[in-house]
Amino acid sequence: MNISVAMAVYNGGKYLREQLDSILKQLDEMDELIISYNDSTDDTLKILEEYVYKYEIIKVYHWEEKGVISNFENAITHCTNAYIFLSDQDDVWADDKVKKVMDAFNSDKTILTVMHNCEYVDDNLNPLGKDLFSDRNVKLGFLKNLFINGYQGSCMAFKKDLVPFITPMPKTVAMHDQWIGILAERAGHIKFLTEPLMKYRKHTGSHSTEHVPFGKKMKWIGKMAFHVGETLNEKKMLKWYLQSIYAPEKKADFDFDDYGYSEHELEERTKEKPSNTNNTSELENNNGETMMYMVNKLNQNKEEEK
Q1: CA 240 to chain CA mean position, Å
Q2: Which of 29, 30, 37 is nearest to 6 (CA)?
Q3: Looking at residue 274, what is its pLDDT?
Q4: Model-wide pTM > 0.70
Q5: Cα–Cα distance for residue pair 175/146, rounded to 1 Å
Q6: Buried-most residue among 39, 140, 151, 258 (CB within 10 A)?
Q7: Cis peptide bond prior to 168, omega within 30° of 0
Q8: pLDDT for 278
C-alpha cells in the first residue's frame, strides 16, 4: 500500500536536507512526498529545486497564503495515496518509522489514524531527556485534548478517507494537529505507538502554548470547540460513513428519513467497496461513486424538497 507524505515548508533551509533524507530512504517509486511551499527568505527554495531534480516522487506546490495551518492543508489536499503521513521540515525520522506505522494500520482495518511517540532533542539532535507521550500525557478524550493538546502532527498518519472530514480547516483554530486529532477521534479508531519513531527538535524560542496568556488560550479553546461542534453537525452523514467502517461500535445516530434513504440502504452502499488497491479510498464504491459525491447529492435532494 502506497503512502503520501505531506510537508509544509517555510524558511526551513537549515535542517531541511536532513529531514528529507530521513524520509526519502523509506519511500519507494509509488510513494510521494508532497511539499507545500510558502515564500521564504532563506535557501529553502534552492534546496527543494535540488531534491526535485533528483527525486521524481517529490512534488512541490507553491502556496501564497501564509500560516502553518493553511500550508499543511494545501499539502494534505494534494496527496493522492491511501495513507497520509504528516511531516515538519526540521525533524528526523527513525529508519523504520514508515514500516512500523504501516504495520499498525495493517494490524486492524478499523484503524483510521496512527500516532507515534517522539524523542525531544535540541537543535543539534542531543537528547533532552523527554518524550512527547510523557510530556503531554497523550491519550484519547475530547476535553483532555481541547485543554491540553496531546496530538503532534509530525507524529501522525491517517487514511485518506479522513481528509473530507477535516477539510477545510478553520482559519481561527490554534493548530492543525489538534483539529485533526479531535475530529479523528470521532470518526474512527486511533492507534497510539509508544515507541519514539522520530527526533523532534525543540528549538529555543519555538512556538508553544505553554507561555500563551490565559485569556488568549481560552479564546483558542472556545474557537476550537465551536468549530468542532459545527463540523460534526454539518457533516453528520460523513461521520456516519466513517464510523460505519472505522468505528462501528460508536456509529452515530442519524435521521435517515431526512435524506430519503433507509439505514439498510446506506449500509449496503458502504459494503460496495473495491478490493484494496494502492490509491483507492475505502469509501469509494464499485461504480466509482465517492462518498463525498453521495453526501453532496443527498444534501442537494434534501434542499430541493424544502
Answers
A1: 19
A2: 37
A3: 41
A4: yes
A5: 11
A6: 151
A7: yes
A8: 47
Length of the chain: 306
Residue type (1 letter), 101: V
